[in-house]
């Protein structure tokens, strides 16, 4: 096995395109999972059983089936129902949906960790329910929620290569294309491996800074 | 002092008006009957202290009045309006007349001391930010913490937090103030400051107080009436001199001599 810097140079332009797609999928997927997870959490706290029950079943189902199966389902089955989405859109939705069933548990734990006395004080002051959520409970839940949410972002980063299977040219997709054209596997795969480490590390640095700021 | 300006008719001369009425109130937790068909009436401006062994239902009464729990049976009326059973909208209206101070303070740690005092007056009473802030500063001055406006509650001592909590409750100008073992969580040297403040408020306002406490000296000082609870019932009621000095019931006598 020899290391060819020329192959690295040849791969770099493609790598950059792949990196952009990976980061795009990660950013959008994270945002969707954060928002959707909060929606699930709040829906599961409504008093109506007819809301809680279907949401419970759906999220349990999504959490217990593999992301790859969900991606295939979204990509190959949805068009049969007349919904055709681009590979990247499908991938972002898949990642966001899948991870929302995890972020939802993070939110739940964060909300349950807010002491009952906080709810009671809000009631004693006659604060409306909505205001109690936005001004008292959620702000206190946030600081407990950030560290685990950050861990899921890093886990999601490592799941982005799955999007290759539905035709998204993220980093692994690019590496595979270039490798197969030039029969050089070592350099492209090493480059993206290093890129994953760097992105993960930067993400965890950001996370630690954010945590420190919230704890203050 | 301008904490509470709505004057009640003087107790002498005119008939005292009933502010709180509980009729046949029963509360169970599982098999445990905490309140057993309780009848209770409190006149406006009175300071009533609830004493008795733990688990006798004292705190439950405060929680029912604050709508933190619902009775299983009976009715609760405050200021002539039904609090239970009542439609949600009416509950919300009646509840505004009641404030509560908790054993664990329960200040909002994500807000400054000042925001703790202005949040509800702005959101619930519809005061302007400036009005609410003026009222809050006045109250913080009253409780001796004018310099802590911008502090986060967690930076304060327990005694300071409890004084803020009292100010927060007063900022809503309630007619009734419920005090649930407000000094139990405090270090001994901080208790006196909180009790002095409450004595002050009791003396200088016409706010009605319902107070669950183990501080018998304080109870004797501020109460017009002391209710002795046992097993979900009031077994003896009377002025503090009577209850503490010469109780009629054996059970009351035993309890008083045990805690004094």
Automatic annotation (TrEMBL), chain A:
<dbReference type="GO" id="GO:0022857">
    <property type="term" value="F:transmembrane transporter activity"/>
</dbReference>
<feature type="transmembrane region" description="Helical">
    <location>
        <begin position="189"/>
        <end position="210"/>
    </location>
</feature>
<keyword id="KW-1133">Transmembrane helix</keyword>
<comment type="similarity">
    <text>Belongs to the binding-protein-dependent transport system permease family.</text>
</comment>
<dbReference type="InterPro" id="IPR010065">
    <property type="entry name" value="AA_ABC_transptr_permease_3TM"/>
</dbReference>
<keyword id="KW-1003">Cell membrane</keyword>
<dbReference type="GO" id="GO:0043190">
    <property type="term" value="C:ATP-binding cassette (ABC) transporter complex"/>
</dbReference>
<dbReference type="GO" id="GO:0006865">
    <property type="term" value="P:amino acid transport"/>
</dbReference>
<feature type="domain" description="ABC transmembrane type-1">
    <location>
        <begin position="19"/>
        <end position="207"/>
    </location>
</feature>
<feature type="transmembrane region" description="Helical">
    <location>
        <begin position="20"/>
        <end position="43"/>
    </location>
</feature>
<keyword id="KW-0472">Membrane</keyword>
<keyword id="KW-0813">Transport</keyword>
<dbReference type="InterPro" id="IPR014341">
    <property type="entry name" value="Ectoine_EhuD"/>
</dbReference>
<keyword id="KW-0812">Transmembrane</keyword>
<dbReference type="Pfam" id="PF00528">
    <property type="entry name" value="BPD_transp_1"/>
</dbReference>
<dbReference type="InterPro" id="IPR043429">
    <property type="entry name" value="ArtM/GltK/GlnP/TcyL/YhdX-like"/>
</dbReference>
<dbReference type="InterPro" id="IPR035906">
    <property type="entry name" value="MetI-like_sf"/>
</dbReference>
<protein>
    <submittedName>
        <fullName>Ectoine/hydroxyectoine ABC transporter permease subunit EhuD</fullName>
    </submittedName>
</protein>
<dbReference type="InterPro" id="IPR000515">
    <property type="entry name" value="MetI-like"/>
</dbReference>
<keyword id="KW-0029">Amino-acid transport</keyword>
